[in-house]
Design a protein that fits this description.
The protein is of the alpha+beta class. The chain has helices at 39-53, 102-107, 172-185, 193-221, 226-236, 238-248, 251-266; strands at 3-5, 17-21, 24-28, 33-37, 61-65, 80-88, 91-98, 113-117, 123-131, 134-141, 146-150. A seven-stranded mixed β-sheet has the order 1-8-11-5-6-7-2. The longest helix has 29 residues, at 193-221.
Length: 268
């Protein structure tokens, strides 16, 4: 489900066309997948929609709210209906006929995002991608099933649904910082701010652990007798923590620290 941001004003486009997908990779942390929106995906989505629309009495694709239609115990009333899809210079757009229930929610800014919904059977598995130390499935959506108004999107991507935001240079600096952080953390170019924050948090946690282990190693150097050193080593469970330290600091640094500690610990 890739969220597109609803326009911050109360104006719905007069022609009814809204942006719903942009090219790129969009992370869905809830499902642990990375959705790939490329030319092949857009072509397939359009072709499948044309097939669906050719059916007798086709009402359009449902636009619900908060994905209620996926839960039999929740109301499935329509907020709108997707009557057309188009590929506009690589951007997927949908013409939505808003209902008397959905239009006030959009105009009143009760919902901020519009999510695309793809069934697991309607995606092509094309590989895996590491995301913050976890392995996510790389998938290409092929068949759009519905849209949903939501304020709790599962993945990232998308521009405002209606007219573009006014030009602004106030975020240029932040954008440059984010690009640099994504590159240094080994994340995809369109990784979310949350993914960047998670990567930084992981580095901070590793640094804290490394500082703790180095402090213990320094303390181990201060012992005067072999017995005292063995007791301190047991209290720290050095054999286990040594393996942890090897993963966190360069091998040479770890080896030098450990060998010196052993020599000084066993010295009379």
């Amino acid at each position: 489900m890739n969220p597109a941001i609803l326009k911050p004003t109360s104006q719905i486009p007069a022609d009814g066309w809204h942006q719903i997908e942009v090219p790129g990779e969009h992370i869905n942390h809830g499902a642990q997948v990375v959705q790939v929106i490329d030319a092949k995906a857009l072509t397939s989505i359009l072709d499948q929609f044309s097939t669906d629309a050719a059916e007798v009495n086709f009402p359009g694709l449902l636009v619900d709210r908060d994905h209620f239609s996926l839960d039999a115990e929740k109301p499935s009333e329509a907020m709108g209906w997707v009557t057309e899809l188009r590929n506009r210079a690589g951007i997927m757009e949908a013409r939505i006929d808003w209902t008397s229930v959905g239009r006030p929610l959009v105009e009143g800014k009760a919902y901020k995002f519009l999510s695309t919904v793809y069934e697991p059977a309607d995606v092509e598995k094309i590989g895996t991608r590491g995301v913050n130390g976890a392995t996510y499935q790389l998938v290409r959506p092929l068949h759009l099933r519905r849209l949903a108004l939501t304020n709790d999107p599962n993945s990232d991507g998308g521009e405002p649904l209606s007219n573009r935001r006014p030009p602004s240079t106030s975020t240029d600096g932040n954008a440059a910082v984010l690009r640099s952080l994504r590159e240094k953390l080994g994340l995809s170019p369109d990784a979310s701010e949350a993914a960047v924050a998670s990567g930084l948090h992981d580095i901070r946690a590793r640094a804290d652990t490394c500082d703790r282990l180095r402090a213990e190693c320094d303390e181990l150097r201060t012992v005067k007798t072999e017995a005292e050193g063995r007791a301190l080593a047991r209290s720290y469970r050095v054999s286990n923590r040594a393996q942890e330290l090897k993963r966190l600091v360069p091998v040479r640094s770890w080896s030098a620290c450990w060998e010196q500690a052993v020599r000084e610990t066993t010295a009379v």
